[in-house]
């Protein structure tokens, strides 16, 4: 079947957007992932006792205040992201709304897995309909009834649960640093230092960084000051 010049193909008499490349990859999602890979280096680290999320604050324009990169989703959940800041903010708003709706419906806090699945479905819809995928990857941290949790959700809607993630610019180098320094027995200060190193070493300087933590003791997500 011949492809049309508009990038659409015909099936059963109807026109449908042409999403897949010759290797079966989702072309628009690949483009969104490329945008994520040009974004700020962003880290997530989890142990059984806490989770740390950290993101490099890239300068934008002279005299302009930098955009925040660490966000509270609910009292027990925080998130950060890499990619287009407008898309990150839209996804943060979507998660905050989902957490509020869950509290109203079930009279309790949303669990991290349900929130990750909600964001996954929200992003997946952008790969089905003829709209631009969100050019942002999100790291979610929090504490629920199952303990400390850390998830990454990418623009395709694919999500992962784990103990360490790196997204954005230099993410491969940053992940290598995390893998070399990670220990499930590390304390919070050690994890914060490791996440800072994972951002700083690939850049070769000490950039502006924002960090958020949640611990098993109090279960409250909060920002912390980097020294």
Can you offer a commentary on this structure?
With about 230 residues, the protein is of the alpha+beta class. The chain has one domain: Aminohydrolase, N-terminal nucleophile (Ntn) domain (Glutamine Phosphoribosylpyrophosphate, subunit 1, domain 1, 4-Layer Sandwich). Helices cover about 35% and strands about 30% of the residues. It has helices at about 25-35, 85-105, 110-130, 170-180, 190-205, and strands at about 10, 15, 40-45, 50-55, 70-75, 75-85, 135-145, 145-155, 160, 165, 210-215, 220-225. The strands form 3 sheets. A 5-stranded antiparallel β-sheet has the order 10-3-4-11-12. The longest helix is centred in the middle third of the chain and has 22 residues, at about 85-105. The radius of gyration is 19 Å and the shape is globular. Residues about 1-15 have low confidence and may be disordered.
List the helices and strands and how they pair.
Elements: E1 8-11, E2 14-17, H1 27-37, E3 42-47, E4 50-56, E5 71-74, E6 77-83, H2 85-106, H3 112-128, E7 136-144, E8 147-153, E9 159-161, E10 164-167, H4 171-181, H5 188-203, E11 209-215, E12 222-224
Antiparallel strand pairs: 1-2, 3-4, 3-10, 4-11, 5-6, 6-7, 7-8, 8-9, 11-12
Q: How do the strands line up in the largest sheet?
A: 10-3-4-11-12
Q: What's the CATH architecture name?
A: 4-Layer Sandwich
CATH superfamily: Aminohydrolase, N-terminal nucleophile (Ntn) domain
Give me the count of strands.
12
- Largest sheet at a glance? 5 strands, antiparallel
User: Are there runs of 5+ residues with pLDDT below 50, and where?
Assistant: 1-17
